[in-house]
Give the backbone structure.
Amino acid sequence: MSRTTRNNITANLFKSSDTTDREKKQEKLLHALKAMKAIEEILVDIAKSRPHWSRLLMAVDSRVEKALTVLRPQALTDHRVLLSSLGWPPSLLTSNAEKDKCLEILNPLVLMQGEKKEKYSQSFLALCALQHLQTQRESRQHEFLRYPKGYKLPDLMDIGKPSCLRHGIWVIDELVYPIAARMEYHFSRWSNKPEFTFALVYKITRDFLDGVDNILQPLIDKAMIIGCSAKEAWVSGMMKMLSKYLEGEVFPALARHYKGADEKLEVSSSWLHYVDLMTTYDMRMRTLATTGTPIKGPFYEFEGVPGRMSLLSVFDEHPDWLQIWAKIELKDAEDKLKLEIDLERSWSIGSREKNQLANAEETESFILSSRLDSKAPLIADSVVRISWTMIERALSLPSKLMRIQFIRSSATLFLNHFFISLLQRCRDVDITSAVLEDDELLTVIGSVNAAKYCESVLQQWNDDISFLEMGVANDNQHRDTSFFEDEIMFLVKLGTDSLVEIMSGILLQFDALCWKYIQNIEHLGEENIASNDKILEERNLSISPEFMYALEMLRDRMEIFRLNLNSQDFVDLWRSIADGLDHFIFSSISASNVRFSVMGVHQFKVDMGALLLIFSPFCSRPEAFFPCISDSLKLLALGFEEVNHLLQVFSEGTISVECLRARGLFHVSVGQAERILRNRRL
């Protein structure tokens, strides 16, 4: 007999021996699983019917657990040996891989035939049964500890209803582990090219996906593991592998360098690059796992579903990393803003935009859907865009708490810093100054418009379901609290205070310019009485010179507001100014003993008509916004007999108010009306 023949016979004998040993081990494993499954069924019945037998349950559990601690490692070892004999894991890269011309890697699972496929199937089913048994035991023990003695356990613990293995499938994890070991070599070579790392993991996951789905899904169904997808489990396992690498090798080094190195710019750039890669990778892998199948496993989108997979979950266990990331984002955002915030063009609307707004039809739609609607400066749009970039990153995080923490530490701080700068710009201008320049007024208007636009954007964000959920999670005691409530309140107060100061400044300037007019209001028209014309019509009268300067100032300011202030605030402002002027002029008449002559009444009516004319472009009936002045003009226009009649009624004090209302006088009191009528020189 030749030496070659003897070697072949020996090899066959060893092979036959290995096969026999493997078959015996498989039989023993299946027999042990069958016995422990029967024990588990008995324990479930006892837990339901006699929960007070807790010591017996614990004693039996202890013995079964000892058997499992021996059985599981042995079963996994045998399965790994079988995988190795099948050629798993395959070579990850071909010679053309780095030239993006790599061929699809052959999947050893797809190449299995005959006896090999049968052995793998048996080992697969045995491991699934073992994991299923352990999962049932853990569920029963959890429920037993959760409910008090004597409480009936829920029917969900029925042994006949297999549960989904939410934490991965062992047999698929066993496919991932050896691949991960081979990938570490490549990862270490690509430390400066992390995109290669992500590309390799994605490629391996994609190339083996169909094979895993076609070969393993039928086995999972045969094992009656309800609700588990081989495709999702494979993708999830590969993501966990990459997540562990990032958590163990990448971010610890980046965090150390960020805290201790002087070159924080380089570390920040690397950090953001990794985050971008992780976010993109999550989306690509989620699409890969769920294409053509319902989303029900680790990639389920609803909060609270165990095992929802995302590479960004590495920040969940390391809140200090999350804070570093937020600081980097905040610093990057503020650096971008600094490039624009000192430019004058960033704070003004361009001439083209101004012309478009000025020529547009004036409406009171009050819907500020864009920056142009708010007439906000360009800087406001930049702030919103940069903030939303940070928020989009936060929305990729897998939990609400992480999103809240990240947004509060990045986007919210960034917005608050900008809002404070708006407030400071307003405070730097003395709005109440009588010599306020147009440029200074435009500075305040631009800040108000920016605040209004940001307020509108934050309100829209608050209405998004993601922010509604975060608002509730952020403050469980106040369910109606919106996420950006504090920021919106700050902007509302900034806008309101600024408009009040603008209004006050306009009224003070008006008072200063028409001081002589008010002081001499009693002598209106006297120069016309001295003339030879005994009767002068109103249309022949001109505006009082002392009143003209105040009207010119008011007209110029209102035109600036109309062209530059946003529509919502402009309506509030001109109505407030009209109300202030109405009370100011009326009080000058009613609170003093002004005695109007007939000609003085005509002159006062001409002057007030000029005042109303300034507000006529903003409404069809400006006199409705000057009710006190309108009522005073009606009183001054009454004839001699009617005046005497009213004074008689006032002296009796019976139906005085009704007499005023009958004549359309609703905004003057009886005392004010009586004082005006008694001071007339008829």
